[in-house]
Amino acid sequence: MDVKKVDMFVMSNGKFFESSDMNIIREKLLALDDSQWSSLSVMQFKDPTTSLIVSILAGSLGVDRFMIGDTGLGVGKLLTCGGLGIWAIVDWFLIQKATRKKNMAKIQQLLY
């Protein structure tokens, strides 16, 4: 793939991934065929900051976990009222990393 396209993707979508994963993503994108650019450019990633805000506001109901696709954990948080509040507070610190991991799993489907 064209270096300019890859650099543009990396710069505009860097906040959606762990910084340690960005080199891997860049290398894999450079090895991709140009025909896959259209499917890459329309991919929607979850914003970790939005996940944090939702977690703070409605984390005890599991909305944050439902939002990133962790349905089982979302149901668990909903039924236990966020683990009596403890699980909800712990997720304030973990939800951004979980969101970035989900984004990485989504892009890996295209890259591998």
UniProtKB/TrEMBL annotation:
The keyword Electron transport does not apply. InterPro entries: TM2 (IPR007829), TM2D1-3-like (IPR050932). It is found in: Membrane. It is a multi-pass membrane protein. It comes from the Bacteria. Keywords: Glycoprotein, Membrane, Signal, Transmembrane, Transmembrane helix. The chain crosses the membrane at residues 74-95. Residues 45-93 form the TM2 domain. Its main location: membrane. This is TM2 domain-containing protein. The lineage of its organism: Bacteria, Pseudomonadati, Bacteroidota, Chitinophagia, Chitinophagales.
